[in-house]
Write a structure and sequence with these properties.
With 321 residues, the protein is of the alpha/beta class. It has twelve helices and twelve strands. Helix content is 38%, strand content 19%.
């Protein structure tokens, strides 16, 4: 039976970070006038470790870099589009070039803020952030993993980007994940095709796997929660034995999970057919419910399963491992 988390990823992260910060006064949170109920306790009990930088994301990144240079372990909290695009130059020059231990915590991955329109649709953030030198890119698929990432804040040695979704999601590992060194995991096994996803799209991949099973296809699901750096040997092992690979993401086709997987397969010498399910090369000037936007882009369960089944039946015999 699937258990749904009682809290969302953001609250899981800040709930854990609160305990971490009480024991370590060097842990500091900066926010661009963007609050959360889980931050109220942090702000009230640890006022010297919380800074409201107001709506000035570029200045906030530069401030975070300066604080990190003075020994602070800084968490910068904002909506994903503002954290990644509006302050990109400051992140690149002030944080990444000097390898400062700043954790950029972004909420609202993909179409999480679907009804707020294109200004809030974070559909390019993976491509943007993984292009920055020294930047680690993480995308947890459930609250337990988000909480585990919060425990690592005092020990970070360089810049990190953590993209969180909104809402409450099923727990894939109810024991929590304190050790995230692998960067990936396999919540479902299968031999015909490997479905690679990140964040909440891992749950979509599991739904697709269930649908494919009804059609006689055996699908493995790979949760790629660390998109950069990628452990090529573990990645190769995760694909071993399967006939084909497909990626499922709520991100533009260019530079996201599909690109990460294609590059990794090339670098690791994995020769398998690859199909990518992603947002087409277009900017969505529309507002709507998240599920509706998925259907329109073929990212719903039935749309993916049908397209994947048609593609799989036309594949030639595997050419390699």
């Amino acid at each position: 039976m699937t258990t749904v988390s009682k809290t969302d990823m953001r609250d899981a992260f800040f709930g854990t970070l609160y305990d971490v910060a009480r024991d370590n006064r060097d842990v500091v949170v900066l926010s661009n006038d963007f609050g959360a109920p889980s931050l109220d306790r942090f702000r009230a009990d640890l006022p010297g470790q919380f800074v409201n930088a107001a709506i000035s994301e570029q200045n906030m990144m530069s401030t975070a870099a300066g604080m990190a240079m003075r020994g602070k372990k800084v968490v910068v909290y904002s909506i994903a589009t503002f954290a990644t695009l509006r302050a990109l130059e400051q992140t690149k020059v002030d944080i990444c070039s000097m390898k400062q231990p700043v954790t950029i915590l972004a909420v609202g991955a993909g179409y999480a803020y679907s009804t707020d329109g294109p200004t809030h649709h974070a559909t390019e953030d993976i491509a943007v952030m993984r292009s920055l030198a020294h930047m680690e890119v993480l995308s947890p698929s459930e609250p337990a993993m988000a909480g585990a990432l919060a425990t690592q804040v005092p020990y970070t040695s360089g810049p990190r980007y953590i993209r969180l979704d909104r809402g409450k999601w099923p727990l894939l590992d109810e024991t929590g994940r304190d050790d995230l060194s692998a960067g990936l995991r396999v919540p479902r096994h299968g031999q015909d095709v490997v479905l690679v996803a990140t964040g909440i799209m891992v749950h979509r991949a599991l739904q697709v796997a269930d649908t494919l099973a009804q059609q006689g296809m055996s699908a493995r699901v790979l949760d790629l929660y660390r998109l950069k750096p990628l452990d090529l040997e573990r990645f190769r092992e995760a694909l071993a034995g399967a006939k084909a690979v497909a990626t499922i993401e709520e991100h533009t086709m260019h530079g996201g999970v599909g690109s990460v997987v294609a590059e990794a397969m090339a670098d690791a010498g994995v020769l398998k057919p690859l199909k990518r399910f992603a947002i087409p090369d277009e900017l969505l000037y529309a507002y709507g419910e998240r599920d509706t936007l998925h259907v329109e882009r073929g990212l719903d369960v039935d749309g993916i399963a049908e397209a994947l089944a048609r593609w799989f039946t036309r594949l030639p015999a595997p050419a390699g491992r």
